[in-house]
Design goal:
2 strands
């Protein structure tokens, strides 16, 4: 009973967790906790209502069975549910929501493939059903949380360090969606062929392809998404920093010129007062007004002097 519930809903909650990790990157909307709870509850209901596999008649031809398995829309629907949850909970653009969900889908698929392969290995190693379920449950929990931690430190945290980012290469996001969709369809095809192919000597080949192909595609998509966005955003931040530096430098030059002019005027007025024919009271008032410019900061560093003088 518990194993069936986990198998039915693991895809949804793993994808939901990896998608919502972007709450550390994007601004959270008001009442975030309530939005998160509502999104998770609705997604869990949808996940429980849609069977993990379509019910097909035994008389259906193998090719038709393979085609229907590969086109089964359950995972597309749950992907759209998680995409909607990201938009509902986080203040991000549609492209950013797609980016978060598709990269989360990649890491979820890596998690699934890892513990699925482990399950196949456990089946080969032990025939004791209780021990097999226990090993599978414990390893599944450990693998999922280990990949969550890796995903956070190696992927989400790097994006968070940018201080916010924009999707600069939308074609890469579209390509990643197409790639993982194709990988999911081919995954269903390879698994169906592994289960139904009559030649026992060829079946291990389908199992290897079933395990290796989606892992390779997901790793490549993750790397491409992070690399394109991180590189482009870092370059954009560098250009902004350079522009701010240039403006600050120009402002410093203006301030330095103003300080030099004031210094010249101060010395000119001081010499003028020494040779003036003004009354003593008038000279004292003018000298008092001028002497404040003699108190400009003198720290030994000309740049600091200019900033303090401003």
């Amino acid at each position: 009973m518990l194993e069936a519930f986990v198998d039915q809903n693991s895809f949804f909650w793993e994808l939901f967790i990896t998608s919502m990790m972007f709450a550390f990157v994007f601004q959270r909307r008001s009442r975030y906790a309530l939005r998160l709870a509502v999104s998770f509850a609705l997604g869990l209901i949808v996940s429980m209502l849609i069977p993990t596999q379509p019910e097909l008649g035994a008389s259906l031809p193998p090719m038709s069975r393979i085609l229907l398995y590969s086109l089964y829309p359950r995972y597309v629907i749950l992907f759209l549910v998680c995409f909607s949850a990201v938009r509902f909970c986080l203040d991000c653009s549609p492209w950013e929501a797609v980016f978060a969900t598709v990269s989360g889908y990649c890491i979820q698929h890596i998690i699934y493939k890892t513990y699925d392969c482990l399950n196949e290995a456990v089946i080969l190693l032990t025939s004791v059903e209780t021990a097999r379920y226990l090993i599978y449950a414990i390893s599944r929990f450990i693998i999922a949380h280990a990949f969550f931690a890796l995903y956070w430190f190696l992927y989400v945290k790097k994006l968070k360090s940018l201080g916010g980012f924009k999707i600069n290469n939308k074609y890469m996001v579209v390509l990643a969606v197409v790639a993982v969709s194709a990988a999911n369809m081919l995954n269903a095809i390879f698994y169906t062929m592994y289960v139904t192919y009559p030649n026992e000597s060829v079946r291990p080949l389908f199992l290897i392809v079933y395990a290796a192909f989606p892992l390779l595609v997901c790793f490549l998509c993750l790397f491409a998404l992070l690399d394109s966005t991180y590189g482009a955003t870092t370059s954009a931040n560098l250009l902004i920093s350079q522009s701010l530096y240039d403006k600050t430098r120009a402002q410093y030059e203006i301030s330095k010129q103003n300080a030099d002019r004031i210094n010249i005027k101060y010395h000119d007025l001081k010499r003028f007062l020494e040779n003036s024919t003004y009354s003593r009271e008038a000279s004292r008032d003018i000298r008092h007004a001028v002497e404040q410019y003699e108190a400009l900061p003198k720290t030994g560093n000309n740049a600091v002097n200019i900033v303090l003088s401003e």
